[in-house]
Amino acid sequence: MAVLREIAPAQVKDQSALEQLVNYGERHCSVIPCYAVCKRLGLCNTSQAAERANDLVVADRQKRRGVSWREPGYAGLASLTALVKNGEGSRWFSTQTLAFSLDPGPA
If you placed Cys at 73, which of 37, 69, 84, 100 could pair as Cys (CB 3.0 to 4.6 Å)? Predict the structure, then answer.
């Protein structure tokens, strides 16, 4: 964000847009991935795995049945199905905790 703040005002067409960008970056910096670091760690840089997981968890079920749900029902089904598919159902329902680990993916 420091680099953006160093841009001379004369070089910026819309100063408020730049300020919005800087503010957004500062608010969300903890969840914006650094793709160079991810690549060096061998982590996935796309949402392809997440999109595929969503298809497996909920989308396919809805499409086959012609179902259209509101977000709370959809999110609830996705959460429960993910718990079961990840083998975390019994842990969650007994302790309300989840095991967390980074999956290195295929070797």
Answer: 69
pTM: 0.40
Question: Domain tally for the chain?
Answer: 2
Burial class, 35, CB count within 10 angstroms (exposed 0-12 / middle 13-18 / buried 19+)? exposed
Residue 84 CB contacts under 8 Å (≥ 6 apart), including other chains: none
Domain range enclosing 65: 48-95
pLDDT of 81 higher than 70: yes
In a domain, 72, yes or no: yes
Max mean pLDDT among 26-35, 43-52, 53-62, 66-75 falls in 26-35
* Chain centroid offset of residue 96 CA: 21
- Is 106 a member of any domain? no
Tokens of 55: 């298809």
Token representation of residue 76: 């609830």
27 and 52 share a domain? Answer: no
